[in-house]
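assembly run, all chains below
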Amino acid sequence: MAEYIITTEKGKWEVICGLEIHCQIISKSKIFSGASTEFGDDVNENVSFVDAGMPGMLPTLNEECVHQAVKTGLGLNAVINKYSQFSRKNYFYADLPQGYQITQFEYPIVGEGAIDVDLSDGTSKTIRIERMHIEQDAAKSIHDMSPTKSFIDLNRAGVGLMEIVTKPDFRSPEEAGAFLKKLRSIVRYLGTCDGNMDEGSMRCDASISVRPLGSDELRPRAEVKNVNSVKFVMQAIEYEAKRQVELYEKGETIEQQTRQFDSVNGVTKFMRKKEFSDDYRYFPEPDLPPLILTDEFINKVKSELVELPDAKKARFVKDLGLTTYDATVICENKETADFFEKAAKGHDAKKVANWLMGDFFAMLNEKKKELKDSPVTAENLGALVELITTNVINGKTAKDVFAIMAETGENPEKIVEEKGLKQVTDTGAIEKLIDDLLATAADNVAAYRGGKVGLFGWFVGQVMKQSQGKANPQVVNELLKKKLG
Amino acid sequence: MAIDNNTVRQIAFLAKLKVEPDKLEETKEEFNKILAWVEELREVNTDNVEPLVSVNNESLTLREDKISAGHNAKEILANAPAQEFGYFVVPKVVE
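ok done. output:
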């Protein structure tokens, strides 16, 4: 793998990074209350008395959140802990009405796991997962409506979260970015989190430190909080590592601290000294007994698992003959992979992949449409490829047919039939076009035969033009070569 | 284990409690009395005994994923010291 090393005049440095990712669980109701998780509803309408921290209200654990957590754990190839337990993490903040967050501490629901990430140089790397636990989200605070006041909406308070913690296995911004994309792809395949970082349903904290290359020491780290895009996480790691190297080389020390990422300027800024977990005064949640999972429950979740991106990718390469690159792009998103599979069914899969990743995506982009709203259906894309592979139309005509499909949503057979676009493969007809051309372009024929072989393309072009683009280019080439001698 | 005035201050800070300077000594003594009692409990040998998290050995009962609460913003906000536009309003907390 290409090493990421910060080289200065004074030395070489290595980056050590671990990530913590909060994923909002997809469920109808909140993790400990019956209020809705719907995003964008009227302010404070999706709030129960539990979420509001009213005295005497008791939390009740949502079965679906447990189910989703186990499913995610299995997708991370991780150990599912049959015994887990909730704890209170105590702190005071306006977005936390209870004065504590119900989370898991010593006994998380999911233990160690691992996922492989693909890097741009074609290699892959295994990233180890330390743990994953479930907890409640905090409320949303709005600070920009008044210079002196903050506004609190409790709709998000109590929505279920999965917090995934990796081992400090990242050695470059690229590895962290690749991991986030892979994780997002996995939770979307599983349907356990929608993975939208810009809407905050997936949020990332990065712990970053540096050390002299070749050393195995662990230096104090900076935790960069709530970075909300893959690109920003990569930028934050790059900036923060360079900043630390500069400080060390100036002879300064670094204290463990919490920083925030300023996406406008691409820099990290000091927030506070890192609090110690003692300060949170964790203790077992007295309102919830331990969570004990049965084999039956875990096996049921296992039986519901869909084919995940890695398995799908391997199958597309092995059974359908796609390149690893094509398969990686197509499998990143489950909807794309499903569309591709439908389109490729019974047709030349490699060609379908080329069309999908080329003209098809370009068309969606241009029309600013989502895949699900595409005017060209998977079946019609497959049918178009079939018309090309069976020589009914040539590649150039196919592009014209595709353009009509994109406008009208018609199936390609009908378009070809109605517009009379069938390719001419009849050698007699093509021969006649060539003879006519050679008779009228005697000068060029003489020049070609005299050694100006570059004119060959001009002859091909003329014949294609005369055929209104319908001649089979291969046949035209062969016949022209024969006739020009 | 005994704690000093600084620890009392730190705990009070974390709990957002105001302990007047002339009450520090008294609070410290109270804390230390509690700790002394816990210290007595520590005399019991608990090697190889799993921590008891709950006296009820049953697992957690899970709730079906159904919406059964909400749409009562007025009641939720009824005790708010201040509210505007349907939000709870607090003195500005800036990150």
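Helices of chain B lie at 5-14, 24-41, 73-77.

The first strand of chain B starts at residue 83 and ends at 84.

not gonna interpret more than that til we talk
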